[in-house]
Structure formats: C-alpha cells, structure tokens
Amino acid sequence: MAAAVRMPSANQPKSMTRPTRWSDVVEEAYRFQIAGYRDEIEYREVQKTDHVDRWPHNGYVKKLVRRDGCFYYYNRTRECPDKQINKTKLYEY
C-alpha cells in the first residue's frame, strides 16, 4: 500500500523569525496573532474574505473577527508592547 504524499500548500510559510525591534510589520503580525491567526493570509483563508478593516490614516488593522465569531477592535496607535515584540512571529513564504 502506497503512503499518501502530502504536498505542501502554497499558503504554508517556509520559515519563521522573531523580531527584535518594533516596526509596522511587527505591529501587523501582532494584531493578527492576538486574534488567533498566523497572519493576514491565514485570516483571509479562514474568514473567506478579501476585506480587512483598516485605519485610513496609517493602514493598521482596525477590526478582526476571531475564529469563534467575536470581534477584536484595535486602536489607531501602536498596540504591541515592548515585552511582546520578541514573542511575535514573522512568517516568510
């Protein structure tokens, strides 16, 4: 009996790094991970949407739907505290 070979999905990350300093990319990743998603790609897959609510003046995520249907609302300014920067994961595809 031949074993089924599972091909990696195009949406699976190839590597993961942890940041050492805050940046807009870290802020973006932090907001998605607080809501229970790996990143924006996984959010769009799970929620089956192309729309992510963002603040118009800086482009940060404004609102996300968690996996259980509840909402996360974010402020216009930075939300990622310095203590959480190195706990955030940045994925590369």
Automatic annotation (TrEMBL):
InterPro entries: Meiosis-expressed_gene_1 (IPR020186). It comes from the Eukaryota. GO terms for cellular component: nucleus. Belongs to the MEIG1 family. This is Meiosis expressed gene 1 protein homolog. It comes from Elysia marginata.
